[in-house]
User: What shape does this take?
Amino acid sequence: MIHRLAELSFTQVDALDRDRTVVLFAVSPLEEHGPHLPIGTDLFHAEYFSEELAKRIIEANTGWTVLIGPSLPIGASAFDQAGTLRARARTVRNATLDYGAALARHGFRYILVTNGHAGPRHVVALEEAAAVVSRRYGARMLSLSGPVLWKFLRGKFNDRLEPLLGRPLTEAEREAMRGDAHGGLWETSLLMRVRPTLVDPAYAQLAPARFSLLDALRKNYPLRLGNRMGYIGSPAAASAEFGELARRLLLDVVWDVVRPVFDARDESWQQTSFLYKIPFLRTAFPYWVLVLGVLLAGLLLVQWLR
Assistant: This one.
């Protein structure tokens, strides 16, 4: 069965079989996504996949229960405009960690975090939180976006698109997918499938917005460069057809990540993004730099006093 965690009493929650219960919750910010999409785009996508994954888990595991927990509408590495709820990466990590720990302390072994936001520090913060809870409580907590989102945006699953689409991609479609990252073809199409009434029809008149790697080093670059409309990619190329394609592909790919959480007998279920291995994206990096700076200053002082 599928339940809303917030709608149950503590006695109902406590009566659940911990070995056959999965908890899902979303962590994604409210963030600007151009003039054509709502600020809740990432959160709506994450919550949608929580619902769909809950159904798949129940179908694949007879007699299991899925709890869908309340969402956390915060995120790091977000483009900052009116309506954006941007938080420090450390805040995202700690809030997600505390959420997972509260569940794990009471014996829940399977905890899955959904997320529709690909901000690098956000993705890593969720992965850090999941790793700490898993290690500290012996649970299996996993952030599902890490192994999926950046591979998807970088075209690593493109070989699976045409079989799902049932036809070859056109050159125009391939061009529209190039550099698509925020409020463009994919996110606009997916929201057409998930919350169609929230997509402003004016998306069809928006020109492509693409940026160089050098551009991307600037803070809030899609709001400061180009047409300054806050999107990256080609929203005008979006369609309900591509929304269904994204939905099916992402569900299949995420399900490949989820299954080992229940089935693996070793640590192979613990998958992370390539971002997780980049030191300066880790939430503790500023503290490491500070400690290193203090140590170096101490060594210099000792040398000077000699």
About this structure: The first strand starts at residue 2 and ends at 4. The mean pLDDT is 94. The chain has one domain: 2-282.
